[in-house]
Amino acid sequence: MTPRGAPDGPSPSAVPIPSLVASLAASLLPARRLPRHGNPLRMLLSPAPWRATGYLAGYVVAGSAFFAVATAAVLVGIVFSQLTVTLALTVGSVWVVRCCAQVERGRALLIDVPIPYAYQEVTEAGFVGHLKARCTDPVFYRDCCYLILLHPFLLLLDALTLAIWLPLLAGVSLPLWFWAVDCRQADGSFADGVRLGRSDGTGPGIWIDTWPAALIASAAFLVLAMYASYAVVAAARLHLTVAHTLLRPPPDPLAEAKHVLAAPGPLSPTPPRPVTGPTAHGGHRT
C-alpha cells in the first residue's frame, strides 16, 4: 500500500540512467566495414581492427602533411588576398585546401563509404565572381576547421591509440624475434633476449630469454590485444564521426518539408480523375 503523499511512479533514483560511455558509444557513426563482435577473439581476427589501424595510421602520416600544406595555403591566401595581381594565387590556395579535404573524404573508404561533398557553384561571371564563390563557401571553412584546427586533437587521439595497440601486437609476435635481440644489462654487458620494462636493466621488468617465457608473454599480450581491438575500432569510429560532421554537406533545414511535399498526399500534384455519373445531356448516359 502506498503511503499518503508519496508519489505514484518510481523514484528518480530507480530510473536507469545511461552511463556516459554508453551515450558516447551510441553517438558514434556505425561504420559499415567496422562491425563489432561480442567475442573478443573473433573481434581480433576480423578485418575491423586492421582496417581501423590503417585508417588511424594513415591520418598520422597524411593528416600531418595535409595540415602543413593547408596551413601554408591559407596563410599565403590571406597575405596576398589584398593584392589584385595575386588573386589567382588566392584561388589556388582555396583549391589546395579543397584537394586535401577531398583526399580525406576518400580515405573514409577504408572503414566506410567515401564522404559526400557539395561545394557552392559559381553563379557570377568573371574572375571576381569565381573568387567570391570559392572564398565565401561555408564548406571551405569547414574543410579548414577539419584540416587545421582539429588536427592536433585528432592526431593525439590516433597516436595514443596506436601507441597502445602496436606494442601489444609486437608482444604477440614475441616468440618470432626475441632470440635475435641483444639487450643491455645493468653492468653494461649485452645478452640475448628482450626485457619488458626499462631497457637498461636498472628498473623493474621481466627478462624474456627462453621459449617458455616468450610463449607465456605472447599469450598475455594476446589477451590484452583482443580487448584493445575494441578501443582501436572505437577510436576509428570517433574519428570518422568528426570527419562526417565537418566534411559532408550541411543538412538542409527544409529537407523534411520537401519530403512531405514530394510524398503522395493531399498536397501532391495528381491528375484530375474523370467525373462519373449522369452527364449534362438530359441526365442520361451516352
TrEMBL record:
Span list, region Disordered: 262-286
Domain of life: Bacteria
Protein name as catalogued: Putative sensor domain-containing protein
The keyword Transmembrane is annotated on this UniProt entry: yes
Signal peptide: none
Keywords: Membrane, Transmembrane, Transmembrane helix
Domain spans labelled Putative sensor: 55-247
Segments of skewed composition (Pro residues): 266-275
Segments traversing the membrane: 52-73, 79-97, 144-168, 213-238
Cross-referenced InterPro entries: Put_sensor_dom
